[in-house]
């Protein structure tokens, strides 16, 4: 199976490396030439453009920052869709929105090109180790056809067919939004507790042992609390994009989301304060800075 992989960033880099390591024939492209070059180092063939990467592919995978970029890469001048062979398959693994994929799909159908949305979670760690969670929207037969590739990039037990076209994007956006909302709530609770005089490690341990525990509190917060790691592997600019898309989705289906909307604003405030490339957990820094505390504790084994 010949695969084109477009977008070789923090996520697409390791995901494509895992495909190459599994023996998949890969042609790759990224607008950042250094990233395309790095992929040659693990056995991929560098293409001169996204369209060139796609022209003889059975499957085209995209892992791009925003819906606007996905649309431009697929449908813009020199676009990938026009270059894709008949009856090939496009798998968009970006965190994007159904409307863009719908526009691509309407044009793709004329030439028998099939489409899956397959966004992921699991952070750069999961991309590296090939243990991502993958949420796939689209036809069951296409999901089965893509399974071998998806199982290389993700944990096969957590590669899920979640519904028709667009369902993967919706699940992914809701996962991120719930995680972001919890992040803000945990930042508040830890900051208030520490300001009230409780030792952070005792507070953390108490919360983990309580019904208020969560995977985010118990696991994902630890690098921040023990080493000041705000997860630059996922830039706050992209996190703002995701929380914005989640609120847009809520608006589109006419569900009021007060908590989600406040969370979006807090993420945007953190981006304005600490810059686009700051890590996705920098909203916690807003609380640390306002309260004049650093939420740090010793790592326990
Ligand atoms: P990134 O910014 O590190 O990588 C994106 C890559 O796309 C970059 O290398 C960039 O040069 C390339 N690119 C931009 N425009 C291009 C174009 N027109 N043609 C070809 N390449 C182009 O972003 P990332 O962190 O790898 O995220 C990618 C997607 O995955 C996003 O939608 C993000 O929301 C999602 N995601 C990220 C994480 C994470 O932890 N980083 C986790 C889950 C999902």
Beta strand count: 9
- Helix fraction? 40-55%
How many structural units, i.e. domains? Answer: 2
Order of helices and strands: EHEHEHEHHEHEEHEHEHHHHHHH
Strands of the widest sheet, in order across it, are 3-2-1-4-5-6
Summed over residues and divided by their number, the pLDDT gives a mean of 97
Query: What overall geometry do the principal axes of the alpha carbons give?
Result: elongated
> Over the alpha carbons, how many angstroms does the gyration radius reach?
20 Å
Q: What's the number of helices?
A: 15
**CATH classification class of the largest domain:** Alpha Beta
What is the fold named in CATH at topology level of the largest domain?
Rossmann fold
CATH-assigned homologous superfamily of the largest domain: NAD(P)-binding Rossmann-like Domain
Low-confidence stretches: none
Give a list of the ligands: nicotinamide-adenine-dinucleotide
CATH level-two architecture of the largest domain: 3-Layer(aba) Sandwich
Largest sheet: 6 strands, parallel
Distance between the termini: 44 Å
């Amino acid at each position: 199976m010949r695969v084109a992989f477009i977008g070789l960033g923090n996520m697409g880099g390791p995901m494509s490396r895992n495909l190459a390591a599994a023996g998949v024939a890969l042609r790759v492209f990224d607008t950042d030439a250094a990233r395309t070059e790095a992929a040659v180092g693990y056995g991929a063939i560098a293409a001169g453009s996204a369209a060139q990467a796609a022209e003889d592919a059975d499957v085209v995978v995209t892992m791009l920052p925003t819906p606007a970029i996905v649309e431009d890469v697929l449908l813009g001048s020199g676009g990938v869709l026009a270059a894709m062979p008949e009856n090939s398959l496009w798998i968009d693994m970006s965190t994007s929105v159904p409307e863009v994929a719908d526009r691509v799909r309407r044009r793709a159908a004329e030439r028998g090109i099939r489409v899956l949305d397959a966004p992921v979670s699991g952070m750069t760690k999961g991309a590296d180790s090939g243990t991502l969670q993958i949420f796939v929207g689209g036809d069951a037969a296409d999901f089965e056809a893509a399974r071998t590739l998806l199982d290389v990039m993700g944990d096969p037990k957590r590669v899920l067919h979640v519904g028709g076209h667009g369902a993967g994007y919706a699940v992914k956006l809701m996962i991120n939004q719930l995680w972001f909302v919890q992040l803000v709530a945990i930042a508040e609770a830890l900051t208030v507790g520490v300001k009230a005089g409780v030792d952070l490690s005792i507070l953390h341990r108490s919360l983990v042992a309580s019904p208020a525990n969560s995977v985010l509190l118990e696991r994902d917060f630890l690098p921040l609390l023990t080493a000041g790691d705000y997860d630059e592997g996922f830039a706050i600019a992209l996190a703002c994009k995701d929380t914005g898309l989640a609120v847009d989705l809520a608006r589109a289906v006419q569900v009021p989301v007060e908590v989600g909307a406040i969370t979006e604003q807090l993420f945007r405030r953190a981006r304005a304060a600490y810059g686009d490339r700051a890590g996705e957990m920098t909203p916690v820094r807003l609380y640390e800075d306002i309260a004049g505390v650093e939420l740090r504790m010793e790592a326990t084994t």
